[in-house]
């Protein structure tokens, strides 16, 4: 097992922003698609909590990412200026306001669809939004909560990739419920019996998995902050995300 502190973190978030902001960049399309996949749920949830219908929110979310592409708005994102989530939300608000003002203007051209929100994915987001009564959360809080959940998902995907490279995907799948998820995780003894190992081995592996996941999550959070973010700033962002999820 590679120690968690030596995990190779790729600065995906801000590097994707910078690549997506220039259409002549070799990885422009891939960068934009990755941004869409990672960040549409918080934006969609924000729009829904503001009172828009699922159809309106989906249309605005799709249009927003097209707007980022066509106007190269994302090229103005500066990793030295602070949180990427703040930049996205501010830009979305401006875009949504402009759409209301210029609804009758010429439709978007180019015939290029950046993001397609399938029915199944939208239903998952609607189910999440339905958990908390609408009058108990502001749109901003919903956005932060979904942002935190999106980063947790990303950290878990990266952790899974680490274990897959190590040939330990079976162990990861057995233990991931002990790291993050709903419900009561299986006991070490039950997992050990299923995998044919000792309970002590499972407990050790669980500790390592938690360490790796925490390191990956910290790396994901760091990538969304300013380029010179300190350890204290990363800790503060983690605390804010944790509070939002509670």
Over all CA atoms, what is the radius of gyration?
Answer: 20 Å
Euclidean distance between termini CA atoms: 32 Å
Number of β-strand runs: 0
Question: Into which percent range does the helicity of residues fall?
Answer: 55-70%
Strand content: under 5%
H-E string? HHHHHHHHHH
- Classification by helices and strands: mainly alpha
Q: Helix count? A: 10
Shape: elongated
Number of domains: 1
**Chain-averaged pLDDT:** 78
Low-confidence stretches: 1-12, 108-112
Reported for the largest beta sheet, the result is: none
List the helices and strands and how they pair.
Elements: H1 12-20, H2 28-49, H3 54-70, H4 84-101, H5 119-130, H6 139-165, H7 169-175, H8 188-195, H9 199-223, H10 231-245
Helix pairs in contact: 1-2, 2-3, 2-6, 3-4, 6-7, 6-9, 6-10, 8-9
Structure write-up:
With 246 residues, the chain is mostly helical. The protein has one domain (4-245). 65% of the residues lie in helices and 0% in strands. The protein has helices spanning 12-20, 28-49, 54-70, 84-101, 119-130, 139-165, 169-175, 188-195, 199-223, 231-245. Helix 1 (12-20) crosses helix 2, helix 2 runs antiparallel to helix 6 (139-165) and helix 6 (139-165) packs antiparallel against helix 7. The longest helix has 27 residues, at 139-165.
């Amino acid at each position: 097992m590679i120690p968690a502190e030596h995990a190779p973190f790729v600065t995906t978030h801000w590097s994707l922003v910078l690549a997506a902001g220039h259409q002549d960049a070799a990885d422009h399309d891939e960068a934009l698609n990755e941004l869409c996949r990672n960040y549409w749920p918080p934006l969609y949830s924000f729009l829904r909590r503001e009172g828009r219908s699922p159809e309106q929110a989906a249309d605005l979310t799709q249009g927003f990412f097209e707007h980022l592409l066509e106007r190269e708005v994302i090229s103005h994102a500066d990793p030295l200026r602070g949180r990427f989530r703040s930049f996205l939300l501010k830009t979305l608000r401006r875009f949504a306001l402009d759409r209301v003002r210029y609804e009758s203007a010429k439709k978007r051209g180019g015939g290029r669809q950046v993001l397609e929100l399938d029915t199944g994915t939208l239903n998952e987001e609607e189910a999440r939004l339905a958990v908390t009564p609408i009058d108990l959360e502001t749109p901003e809080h919903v956005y932060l909560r979904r942002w935190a959940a999106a980063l947790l998902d990303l950290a878990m995907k990266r952790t899974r990739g680490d274990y897959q490279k190590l040939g330990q995907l079976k162990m990861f799948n057995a233990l991931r419920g002990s790291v993050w998820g709903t419900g009561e995780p299986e006991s070490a003894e039950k997992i050990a019996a299923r995998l044919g190992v000792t309970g002590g081995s499972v407990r050790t592996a669980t500790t390592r998995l938690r360490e790796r996941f925490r390191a990956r999550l910290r790396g994901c959070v760091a990538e969304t902050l300013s380029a010179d973010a300190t350890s204290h700033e990363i800790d503060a962002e983690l605390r804010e995300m944790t509070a939002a999820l509670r």
